[in-house]
Design brief:
467 residues; mainly beta; 29-stranded parallel beta sheet
Length: 467
């Protein structure tokens, strides 16, 4: 009898320990009670080893290159089985940094990693940009095929993007234009677009690219001033982006804040985005290459984020050829973006976007549309394409196939927008209308109400649009 009681007690202790362990995951709240099935995502754990960047000859004076010191520190930690690489207070001027498995790159308060704008430090490599394989300069921060990798702390990572990016004259003041163009570079024929050099036109990298990594944590660090996109995880699994700031000047060409591409099981929480292009963007490859890759961006929760200037607060596309599904964005605020909620694609992409849930978004001072579905992104509308031919006969000649993008089964609810040019814009394809969209509990003040073209089964429940 006593043995039986002892075994029961042990079993209860084991069960209690397991329950406590499960509840010790602070990120479990984000995957509870979702409208789709998604496993919990946990932060990576690292060995209790620590090295300091200064111990490898680095000087945080903002002038001496620390590239070799970062590499040596990574090597030393790798030999120990991993751990934390501490970047102390200072300005650490460097060339590209290659991350390693089982290493947490930790920026202490007051630390700045400042990347050099010297293009010769960044070799031309094969990479993926805008959904397709490309050859560009190596990104300032890269990680490929890694397991357990993190960038944490309270520091700032600056990509020195002004040395890389093109500049459109109409986006800046005369003083800014004169300052950027006085040292040479390449000018367009109309003298309204400037590049640092001809090589920079096609070689700009993203600031940080993580490719095919598992168990990723980006936490509390500020990423800013990127050469092209800012943060670009691609084909990663179990990724947490928590409390980060991703920012670029409003005139930063292709200056997206976050592009989550073909990732699975991702949490984007409590973060701030302020960019020159789309801010929180979900992608999955472009056209035939994206369809062949066949990696949807799926199981994504975005919660508690703030978006300032940018083309779109939350965007899906336009590179979505591998599909996007099982995405929840909730309890966020968008202020001053061009568009609030933005779905975009075009003929030729293919891919299916489905099971998207948008709940509890507050928006203010949206420059264009509060909510947009545009399946003619980057191309002409049906009317423009017809050249005077009647719409129905033109549409009848187009047949949906694998290159036709599909948007369906999307719920948008509990939305408040104070101030937009237009409340709603649904611009579908005649051969593949936008289908099964529920708009519920939406209150928008806008100059114009909305337009609906080629959509089916759009349900409106308590939708109020006021001028």
């Amino acid at each position: 009898m006593r043995l039986k009681q002892l075994l029961v007690a042990i079993a209860l202790m084991v069960a209690s320990t397991g329950l406590r362990a499960a509840n010790n995951n602070p990120y479990s709240i984000y995957t509870a009670n979702l409208p789709f099935s998604m496993p919990e995502v946990t932060a990576p754990q690292f060995p209790n080893n620590l090295v300091n960047l200064k111990d490898f000859g680095a000087k945080g004076d903002g002038t001496e290159l620390c590239t070799a010191a970062f590499e040596k520190a990574m090597d030393a930690l790798t030999k120990k089985g991993g751990g934390r690489l501490v970047v102390p207070r200072g300005v650490w001027f460097t060339g590209p940094i290659v991350l390693r498995s089982n290493i947490d790159l930790h920026l202490e308060q007051g630390s700045i990693i400042l990347f050099s704008g010297d293009m010769s430090l960044y070799p031309i490599v094969e990479t993926i940009y805008e959904g397709k394989t490309d050859r560009r300069c190596q990104s300032p921060i890269t990680g490929k095929d890694l397991v357990n990798v993190a960038i944490t702390g309270r520091g700032v990572i600056d990509g020195n993007g002004q040395d890389w990016r093109p500049l459109k004259k109409w986006k800046v003041t005369d003083k800014q234009w004169a300052k950027m163009t006085k040292n040479g570079g390449v000018m367009s024929k109309k003298k309204d677009l400037w590049y640092p050099s001809e090589e920079h036109i096609r070689r700009r990298p993203v600031l940080i690219q993580l490719n095919n990594c598992r168990n990723v944590l980006l936490q509390n660090v500020a990423f800013q001033n990127s050469p092209a996109w800012n943060i670009h995880p691609i084909m990663c699994e179990n990724i947490i982006i928590d409390g980060v700031t991703a920012r670029n000047p409003f005139y930063a060409q292709n200056g997206d804040a976050l592009d989550l591409e073909s990732c699975r099981n991702a949490l984007i929480v409590n973060s701030t985005f302020d960019a020159g292009d789309d801010c929180i963007c979900v992608k999955s490859g472009k056209d035939e290459e994206g369809r062949k890759r066949g990696r949807a961006c799926e199981n994504v929760v975005i919660s508690g984020c703030t978006v300032f200037a940018g083309h779109g607060g939350f965007t899906v596309g336009s590179e979505m050829s591998g599909g996007v599904k099982n995405v929840l964005i909730r309890d966020c605020q968008f202020l001053g973006t061009d568009v609030g909620i933005r779905f975009k694609s075009t003929r030729g992409r293919g891919g299916v976007v489905e099971n998207i849930f948008i709940d509890g978004i507050s928006m203010y001072n949206i420059i264009e549309d509060a909510i947009t579905f545009d399946l003619y992104y980057g191309g002409k509308s049906v009317t423009d394409d017809m050249d005077g031919i009647e719409q129905q006969s033109a549409a009848a000649r187009i047949v949906a196939d694998e290159t036709t993008p599909c948007f369906r089964d999307i719920t948008i609810q509990n939305i408040i927008c104070r101030g937009a040019s237009r409340a709603l814009y649904f611009n579908g394809l005649p051969e593949q209308p936008i289908k099964n969209v529920t708009l519920r509990n939406i209150h928008i003040t806008a100059d114009k109400e909305g337009e609906f073209k080629y959509c089916e089964n759009v349900k409106k429940e308590n939708v109020i649009i006021e001028q």
